[in-house]
Amino acid sequence: MANFLLDEKEKKIILKTGGGMFSWCSVKLDNVCHYHNTYKELPKIIDGQNAFGHYKTQETKGKDITSHFFMESNNTFSFSGKSNFHYNCQFAEYKNLDFSIITKFVKHYFNPSKTVNGIINELEQKYNINYEQTICIYYRGTDKSAETKIASQADFLNKLSEIVEKYPMFNIVCLTDEISFETQITNIYHEKVTIFKEVSQSMYSSEKRDLKARSYTHGLYMLACVFMLQKCHTIICGSGNVSLWLALLRGHGNNIHQNLHLKWV
């Protein structure tokens, strides 16, 4: 992508185009990596006034609300090499990403804000998740089919069955925008399943995007959940920006079962 507006004199980039929460995260990471590859340093200013539009209130329209979601590191960034990260990495095999380089940028720009950390603490107390013995399954359906081929719910449930057979004592956390998938997985695994009701949304028609489901509060809770779920022992996911950021925040591709172009990789 790397189609940001640039002010070379001020060493400033202005983020331009994005969609949901993690689409904007990918845009920012893409733009920063491109700038760093070109100028051998980080931009001094990243203008995010255009970012996270779906999550703004009347009071924050036209303002940069990045700090509401993320905290930038105060540590010196000393990396001098090049990153090959690109926005379309959402449709790459995550296990092949160069985490040794990309993670440096992720840890610099994408730490949870104080507000998000508070929500993480709230949800951890509420759901009492033992990450080391938990399988995360993220199923994104609905309008995502306009961007990529989506495996069936049955394919995801079959993959989950394989993992549960290997780790029968593990619990399951399900994050999905499909009520039908939520219902199926609960009917099969009963009390072993935790559903984050705070963020699970269902959009019944792929022809009409339910942007009402996106709000400032929903964005905060969705982000907190992804920060949490990346810690799970095993992740089952498709391909897209949320799945990508489960991998990026995790910092490695171990135990990630990704469905890419209808194949498990």
* Shape, per Cα inertia axes: globular
Unreliable runs: 202-212
Average pLDDT, all residues? 92
The largest sheet, given as strand count, sense and whether it forms a barrel, is: 6 strands, mixed
Note the total helix count.
8
- Domains counted in the coordinates: how many? 2
Could you explain how this protein is built, in words?
The chain has 265 residues and is of the alpha/beta class. It folds into two domains: 5-114, no CATH class; 117-264, Rossmann fold (3-Layer(aba) Sandwich). Helices cover 37% and strands 15% of the residues. The protein contains eight helices and eleven strands. It has helices at 21-39, 66-69, 99-109, 114-127, 153-166, 179-189, 216-229, 241-250; strands at residues 5-7, 12-14, 45-47, 70-71, 111-112, 134-139, 171-176, 193-195, 234-237, 256-260, 263-264. The strands form three sheets. Strands 8-7-6-9-10-11 form a six-stranded mixed β-sheet, sandwiched between helices. Strand 1 and strand 2 form a beta hairpin. Helix 4 packs across helix 7. The radius of gyration is 18 Å and the shape is globular. The two termini are 25 Å apart. Mean pLDDT is 92; it is low at 202-212.
Please give a quick description of this structure.
Helices cover 37% and strands 15% of the residues.
